[in-house]
Amino acid sequence: MAERRPALELRAVGKTYPGTPPVVAVGDVSLEVSAGEIVTVVGPSGCGKSTVLHMIAGLLRPTTGEILVDGAPVGDRIPPRLGYMFQKDTVLPWYTVRQNAGLSLRYARTRRADAARRVDELLALGGLLKFGHLYPYQLSGGMRRRLALLMTLAAEPSVLLMDEPFGALYTHTKTRLHAELLTIFRRLNQTALFVTHDLSEAITLGDRVVVLSGPPSRVLLDQPVTLPRQRDVFTLRETDDFIGCFKKVWHVLGQEFRAGEPEHVEARPA
Question: Does residue 25 lie in a domain region?
Fold first, then answer.
């Protein structure tokens, strides 16, 4: 039997912007994500987390290295069956919840009956079925984020990229979305690469947490999360396993934060 390829591979990927001197945004990042796995990525501000996602999506060309999605090299356009959820939701205000959820199916010219069935399944999965007739302005912030996620999942992406999608939400709303996201992803066996600045969020959602260094970024730590896949996000942070994982990752991440701080200069007396 042939060995199964990872869903996503980054092989010594780097990105340098021309200039005098050139700016090395991403130094040397190698990473594999298996099918059905959620890998979260953290690192100091400016370490190239979003740049890595843009290169995976084909929006930027790597200067060095190679990226493969489902075993195929990424070129200059978005790979087939790859989804991208941005920091700001992309719901269209003039469409209803139901119309937004089926937008990608419409562009794919999916048969109307099949599209309607798929939209029903997604809205039910995201708890929005009874809100299908509403417009985005009538939804809460958390519901809009759920809708944005369902819009991305409608096309059944093999790999989903998520760029700090919950960063602007209140802690309570964010925690509820964590529970819903895990339920949806486990049911769909969804593969995801999730970028966040929140270490607690990274551990709550991830099967692994990857720590990137400051620029030129590289992988400092690839930490497995030794928590059950069925997680109660409301009690998770009280457990010894969560606290132990947090300490291991924070030890590396905290050192990187400290290394990026400007040197302290004492004020001279007048």
Answer: no
Tell me the residue range of the domain where 193 lies: 1-12+34-81+158-261
Condensed to tens digits (0 to 9), the pLDDT of residues 119-150 reads: 999 999 889 999 999 999 999 888 998 999 99
Q: Are residues 50 and 145 in the same domain?
A: no
Cα separation values, 99 from 112, 139, 152, 196, 227, Å: 12, 14, 13, 29, 37
Same domain, 150 and 126: yes
Q: What is the pTM (predicted TM-score) of this model?
A: 0.89
Helices vs. strands in the chain: H and E counts, helices first: 8, 10
pLDDT tens column, 42-63: 998 888 899 999 999 999 999 9
Strands 8-17 and 23-33: antiparallel
- Rounded to the nearest 5°, which phi and psi values hold at 192? -145, 145
pLDDT band per the 50, 70, 90 thresholds, residue 95: very high
Q: What distance in Å separates the CA atoms of residue 151 and residue 128, rounded to the nearest whole number?
A: 12
Which CATH number covers residue 180?
3.40.50.300
